[in-house]
Amino acid sequence: MYKVDLPVDESVLKAVERRRAAEAERRSRIFNTRARVIGLDLPALHKQVEEKRERLQMEKQRDKAHDHLRLSLDEMAMQQQKEEEEFRGELARELIQYRAIHQRAEDSLDADINYGQQGAQDVNISLADSALGPASMQVFQGEGINENERKRAQMEITERNLRTQKLEREKQEREQKNRELLTDRELVENDLRAVQLDALEEECKRSAHTALSCFHQAQVEERMEQERQEKLKREGEKLAEVQYMVTSDLLTERPEAAERKAASSAGGPRVLTDRWKGMTPQQLNDIHKHRERQCFEKERWREMERLKELAWDCHLMEQARYQEGEEKREKELERERRALLDKYNQQLAREQQAHQHYLDKQLYTNQPTVQYFTQFSRSSR
Predict the structure, then answer these.
(1) SS3 378
(2) CA-based radius of gyration for the chain
(3) CA distance 313 to 311
(4) Long-range contacts: 25-30, Cβ < 8 Å, 24+?
(5) Partner of 117 for a Cys bridge, out of 88, 112, 303, 376, CB 3.0 to 4.6 A?
(6) DSSP 8-class letter at 275
(7) C-alpha 366 chain-centroid distance
(8) Nearest to residue 271, comparing CAs of 282, 289, 283?
């Protein structure tokens, strides 16, 4: 068998080269510290900047197009205004020229009145006898043939117009009279209605005044009756007071009445100072006995209070001794707990030191070299 050099497939080589380029680009992007730490997406940022630049450019072009359009519209408006002014000037000049040629004041029918002429030139005047010439004549041959019929027709039209104007004026006058009659009738009706309303208002006022007068009269009579009753009541009270003072115990000075009043009062027996003649021996003895009884009760109450205070002081002392004993016991228990906790912490420290010694001296004896760390992150995959 002979060795034959077969052609290499270009698509495979291109695919390999494409994968190598993609791998190189990916590796440069992944192993780029700035992009990996900060997280910048440069293609997206460049795309946003480009889009913003294009948007600003489009807005500038749009504004420029609007400015050109505005300038062109202004120019068109100014051109149109200028053309209108020229057209109006041309019309004014033509109107002035027409009036100067065809509407001269000296060519009118009343030129002889306005300018002191003796009438228009006659057609029979020859050109040789006239100093004005044919261009200055106002009446020519062939004109004024049907002048009478024209004047008659003009008079009929004028008369018809006058008659029409007269009829219209009469119609307007009748309508005005009708409107005035309606207005007068409405005013009369309003006046009658106002008069009726005024009459009704006066009647209501009179009725209200009459009712108010009756009410006031009733109030006056009631007030007079109340004053009379109050006067009779005051007079009766004064007579009763005089009668009471005449028959009272103050003037009669009866001790029986005073003792009976004192016994029947709501507050029990009480001393009437205005009629008091002094205390009896029995009352004095009762007062002394009652005072001695109060003194004895007061002394007994003081003795009871002293005994209560002594009992309370003993109770407080017992409570203080008990509280002091409880505090001593709690301190002893706290000291025992602290000693147990210190022993437990020491045991934990010894165990942790032994575990750390085991890790450092027995387990982690093979330290990694630099080649161990550099073997990682060699590829983007």
Answers:
(1) coil
(2) 71
(3) 6
(4) 26/380, 27/379, 27/380, 30/380
(5) 112
(6) G
(7) 79
(8) 283
Asked if 339 and 346 count as a contact pair (C-beta separation under 8 A), the reply is no
Inter-residue contact 251 to 245 (CB < 8 Å): yes
- What are the pLDDT digits (tens) for 79-106? 998 999 999 888 888 888 887 887 777 6
Cβ-proximal residues to 133 (8 Å cutoff; 6+ apart), any chain: 127
Tokens 């027709």 — which residue?
153
Query: Tokens in use for 8?
Result: 């290499």
Q: What are the Cα distances from residue 71, in Å, to 61, 64, 66, 67, 79?
A: 15, 11, 9, 6, 12
Comparing 138 with 87, which gets the higher pLDDT?
Answer: 87
pLDDT value for 212? 85
How far, CA to CA in Å, does 17 sit from each of 21, 23, 26, 353? 6, 10, 14, 59
Long-range contacts of 56-59 (CB under 8 A, 24+ apart): none
Residue indicated by tokens 């460049």: 46
134, 139, 242, 248, 251 from 127: Cα distances, Å: 7, 14, 154, 161, 164
pTM above 0.70, yes or no: no
